[in-house]
UniProtKB/TrEMBL annotation:
Belongs to the short-chain dehydrogenases/reductases (SDR) family. This is Dehydrogenase/reductase SDR family member 4. It comes from the Eukaryota. One of its GO terms (molecular function) is carbonyl reductase (NADPH) activity. Coiled coil: none annotated.
């Protein structure tokens, strides 16, 4: 059982019915936070909420497609019902196309930037009225090592993640005087549905593992611990940082 650093805190984690988002929600709840989980599909929300509440965790779930303003509004209404918001984790991302950045179609580019970048920007703006009422508001984006050094076959996706690194710096500067921190956690390769084309294909898997000095892919819980650190009082004085959690992979890129 992790230490309970988040008792009394209220957290929103987007795209949290599976993969990294689910592991983050699980970890924050195990540390004592009340967590609002969400994703697009009602069935996924229902199942994930059930699983977490079966463990005795204080979790509530609702459907939210992060690109839809009315869905995002529901998250904050829910948080208000519970008394406010202390922690926002913006985790959703899509990658509709595999290929180099200049091969990306306009429609895929728009979708990638709408979900991966604009939704984080909008969620941040929309969370502020509640975060300002918290004693120490936290904003955490899930970006990627691909944001530091683009992956050949994830061109536009990588650029979207680089944009988040800049948003962290700019928003952190603006919000630091209000004691609201803004940081990102940047995973390497994590075994989730999102990365399964790579991690499940034997040749791609071997090539990818050769790039990871620790010799294994991350599991979602490897990422959740860093988010919990930033969300807790241990992360009180950390802002404007893009933290890499990648088994040493960033040193190879
Ligand atoms: P994942 O396993 O594919 O998880 C997807 C989750 O996101 C599901 O709960 C899904 O539920 C939800 N979702 C998808 N689109 C959504 C949307 N538009 N709005 C709300 N929820 C949505 O993905 P993951 O690998 O955990 O990735 C999470 C984050 O980590 C992403 O930002 C990704 O870029 C980043 N990341 C992942 C890796 C990796 O290797 N996996 C590496 C670096 C960074 P529904 O289908 O019900 O919506």
């Amino acid at each position: 059982m992790p230490i309970k650093r988040l008792i009394g805190k209220i957290a929103i984690v987007t795209a949290s019915t599976d993969g990294i988002g689910y592991a983050i929600a699980h970890r924050l709840a195990r540390e004592g936070a009340k967590v609002i989980i969400s994703s697009r599909k009602a069935k996924n929300v229902e199942e994930a909420t059930q699983k977490l509440t079966n463990e005795g965790l204080d979790v509530t779930g609702l459907t939210c497609h992060v690109a839809k303003a009315e869905d995002r509004a529901k998250l904050f209404q829910e948080a208000s019902k519970f008394g406010g918001l202390d922690i926002l984790v913006s985790n959703a991302a899509v990658n509709p196309e595999v290929g180099g950045v200049l091969d990306c179609s306009e429609s895929s580019w728009d979708k990638i930037f709408e979900v991966n970048v604009k939704s984080s920007f909008m969620l941040t703006k929309e969370a502020l009225p509640l975060l300002r009422k918290s004693k120490a508001g936290r904003i955490i984006y899930i970006s990627s090592v691909a944001g530091f050094q683009p992956f050949d076959l994830l061109g536009a996706y990588s650029v979207s993640k680089t944009t988040l690194l800049g948003l962290v710096k700019a928003a952190a500067l603006q919000l630091a005087p209000e004691n609201i921190t803004v940081n990102s956690v940047n995973p390497g390769l994590v075994t989730t549905r999102f990365s399964s084309a790579l991690t499940q294909n034997p040749a791609a898997r071997e090539a990818a593992l050769a790039q990871i000095p620790m010799g294994r892919f991350a599991v979602p819980d490897d990422i959740a611990g860093s988010v919990a650190f930033l969300a807790s009082d241990d992360g009180l004085y950390v802002t404007g940082e893009n933290i890499v959690v990648a088994g040493g992979m960033a040193s190879r890129l």
